[in-house]
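Final report, Chapter 2: Outcomes

The project's central promise was a pipeline that accepts a single protein chain and returns its three-dimensional structure in a standardized token representation, suitable for archiving and comparison. That pipeline is now operational. To close this chapter, we reproduce one record exactly as it appears in the project archive, with the input sequence first and the structure output second.
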Amino acid sequence: MESKNLIIRHAVFEDCRYFAQWEVMPEVTEFFTMDEGLTYEDVVTEFIKCKIDPSKEIFTICLKETDEPIGKLFITNINDKCDSLDITRIYIAPKLNRGKGYGEEALRLFLEYAFINMHRERVTLDYMTKNIIAQQLYQKIGFKREGTMRNSGKKNGKYLDLILMSMLRADYYESIHDR
């Protein structure tokens, strides 16, 4: 997948070193259901499990100009029967690459891939109730709020509520028409 500033490619084993560095950064983990203290081994284990599970995929978000990895996109619940998938985690990690619109660009690029190339009917994602930045981005892009999933996430042993949002294929085409 390629856009003006980004390339999104399937993650390779070597990317685990970036993910391990990023997924201990408070600015990355604050709004994800990742426990504190993840290790390189934890990241590698998740990567290997995803490689053998056809319902999951991990992508690396890279700057097009330098091919430098700057983020991660983790997809789960890929369901070919229902033509659906979940965006479980998407982030831009290094602070110097945040606030430049790369997260929005990556999300829009992936949605194009999901609806056009993968022929999905429905894409879902969720976010922690306190993550107002994510809420505003997802609404701007065209996701619709479905509701609050009570105690559906767990972080550091504590349950938390997540807001579920979805986009249907028709919503996607309407959002690109309105741009």
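Archive annotation: The two ends are 20 Å apart (CA to CA).
This record, like all others produced under the grant, will remain available to the consortium after the project formally closes.
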